[in-house]
Each structure stands twice: as C-alpha cells, then as structure tokens.
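Q: I'm writing up a methods section and want to include an example of the input and output format. Could you take the sequence below and give the corresponding predicted structure tokens, formatted cleanly so I can copy it straight into the document?
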Amino acid sequence: MSRALTLALVQLEVELLAALLGQEAPLEELLRTLAARIRDGQAPPGTLAFLKAHVARKLRVASPKYLERYP
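A: Here is the clean output for your methods example:
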C-alpha cells in the first residue's frame, strides 16, 4: 500500500473517531478511549456502525477477497 493511501486512511480514521468521541487526539489515543468507553458500558451512539466500517476498511486493504465472500 502506498504511503499516501496509508496516510489518507489514518486521517479518515482520526476524523471519524474524533466525531464519534467528540474529542481530538492521535489515532492510538482515540482507539484507546473508545475501547475504554466500550469496556465501561459507555459506548457512544454510532459505535457499532463505526466498528463495522473500521474493520471493512482494514479488510479492503489487507484482504479484499474476504469482503467479496462475506459482504
């Protein structure tokens, strides 16, 4: 994967997570915050949709044929 695509995907993840959580931070911190909220039973509305799309984006890069078999 090209560096430009990688950076674009990271930026997209940061923007989506920041909107979901209502805070700005680096990607790793946002992911830790979301995980903590889920563990505490305080997942924000939209979490399931975000996580499904997050996994689909990762699979689209790492294993696109998997998504073709299991849409």
